[in-house]
Amino acid sequence: MAETKLGIDVHNAKERKDVENTDSKEHIYLEETFYILSKKKSVFRVRLTSKGLSLTKETDDSSKEQTILLRDIVGSKCMRSKRRRAGGGSCVCTSLGGKDRVTVVDENSGDLDENDISAYLYIYAYILKRSRRTLKRERTTITLRFRSYDKYEDNNKEAQKWRTTIKCLIANQPITYSPPLNDKKLLILLNPKSGPGRAKELFQTKVSQILQEAEVQYDLHVTKYAQYAREFVRTRNVYGWRGIVAVGGDGVLFEVVNGMFERLDWQQALAEVPLAILPCGSGNGLARTINHHYNEPYIPNNLTGLTMGLTRGKSAPIDVVRVETKTKIMFSFLSIGWGLLSDIDIESERLRAIGGQRFTLWALARLLGLRKYKGVVSYARIRDVSNLPKPKHPLTLTHSNSHDGALDSPDAEAFIDCDDSSEVFTSAVNGKRHERVGSFYSVYSRHSTFYSTRGSEYLSVTSSGSEMRSPVHACMHGPASHLPSLMSTLPLHWEHESGEFVMVHVSYQAYIGEDLLFAPRSQLSDGVMWMLIIKAGIGRSQLLSFLLGLNAGNHSDIDTEFIKMIPVSAFRIVPENTTGHITVDGELVEYGPIQAEVFPNIVNLLVPDTN
Fold first, then answer.
1. Domains, the chain, ordered by start
2. The pTM is what?
3. Which of 105, 248, 305, 609 has the greatest number of CB atoms lying within 10 Å of its CB?
């Protein structure tokens, strides 16, 4: 991520508030004139408007204007110049890109240059710019130096006025004399083993700086075993956080979603606490989908756009799908697969270290040894996807039961809010205490806990308070099913396909991987699942051509003897063979009968701000 800096000094300060520009229909909140010391007769006229930060550079014979949109600004901070050391160079504010630039420190620092009465306002932005044929965000720091008055306190008052106004505009709140406060932190659950294992590194290098610049506080917990994130959100008081962020692959968010549905208060928790994902896995289908819908450039291992969404707090509803197998109920947000794509996903795990390329390599191997699966596929077809009724929230709290009653009633659950740091988690499977793994150390600290911004902290897996206890048996709650039990007869209007299949894959999001545009017509919450059926008998060359076209979504309107794409609201798959793979959101589930139905608008996701 490239970075540019612009430093400008104040000159003949002027201020205008709530002035309406009739040409652009935008309000001008603040306006001042600055100049650059390194360039004589060059001034910047800076305006803070309802649109963003307008910078107009004027010289004797030309004028150039640039506007940094409000949605691209993440935060700002007031600073003071640092005390000069002997031989440290001149104290001249140039464009802040050269070797003589002024060094600044926090305004409360004890290492201040008392001779410099200027107040410096740093404004942090990530601007969309075109690089060759792609768009990417470039980090830009605008530095405004206020020195119209002969006292630092007066200059700082002017700088703080700009800072407060920026924060209010970013938060979409009325302009006040004090910046808006949100004392709730983000809860961040990071899986260090997701994908090629770079989640820690990516969080520190790509995410933490943006959160710090936006003054967003967070608690970061590193998962230490499978289902850690699921147990965490099920047993904690999640209302103390402003959102829950899964850092890793789609599997981390799968744990979080199902942990939320295992709460007795699942409906309230999901309504009040939005979820989010920062992609550090191999597939990253949901993250790619979010960027797709919000016109945010998606670059592997670049988390800028989605991190900016965390700072804004804007949320949007998303479909979830209730999935039932013989012994379990679960909730899915991405896809369900049987056959080829699921085989590739699960069997390529041994190549996890190479990241997303593992799918391509294993796809070639599976094409050479193509498998067939016999069974029956049934579905409730959606006849007109352009005229769907508006989805509604479920109105009642219910308890989900499997067809054979294998899941207990909610009365049997001991629901525990685990804020007691003296408790430790004990495995319900073997009764053995889980071993602790290595702490997550910051590059700035050798301690297991450190503060990246005021009030934000990394919690090592060995930190006090990071352990929890789980209910003896977790029960799945959530909206009640509208379908017959798994082994019962289906409604008469359902359609059925029987025989041998290469694969059946159902997705409710546009992308199921970074490069797999599976359902181009899908929306985050539209009540539609897109079922792809590929029957046995298809030639390898035709299948290869189909797979190569997945990255562009060219398959979505195919309807041939062997390939069809069907919009459905519910489905059931009953395999007749005894071996194979069935996946839910990329996670392996028991092989056997499975059915699913879609429920829109239950889960809220933090998304990028497009205003």
1. 3-170 (no CATH), 185-319+410-459 (3.40.50.10330), 332-392+480-600 (2.60.200.40)
2. 0.80
3. 248
What pLDDT, on the 0 to 100 scale, is given for residue 1?
A: 56
The residue from 9, 116, 219, 250 that is catalytic is 250
Q: How far apart are CA 452 and CA 144, in angstroms?
A: 25
Number of H helices, E strands in the chain: 11, 27
Residues whose CB falls within 8 Å of the CB of residue 467, separated by 6 or more in sequence, listed in order:
421, 423, 424, 425
Which amino acid appears at position 548 of this protein? L
Write the burial class of residue 10 (CB in 10 Å: 0-12 exposed, 13-18 middle, 19+ buried).
buried
- pLDDT averaged over every residue in the chain: 78
Residue range 173-215, pLDDT digits in tens: 898 878 777 789 999 999 998 877 889 999 999 999 999 999 9
Pairing mode, if any, of strands 563-575 and 373-381?
Answer: antiparallel
Region label for 493, one of left (φ > 0), alpha (ψ between -120 and 50) or beta (otherwise): alpha
d(CA 350, CA 272): 39
Question: 247 phi and psi, to 5 degrees?
Answer: -105, 115
Q: Among candidates 334, 304, 305, which has minimal Cα distance to 318?
A: 334
- Other beta carbons within 10 Å of 98: 11
Task: Say what the pLDDT of residue 548 is.
Answer: 75
Residue carrying the six token digits 């700082």: 156
3-state secondary structure of 375: strand
Q: Is 250 a catalytic residue?
A: yes
CA atoms within 13 A on the CB side of 354: 10
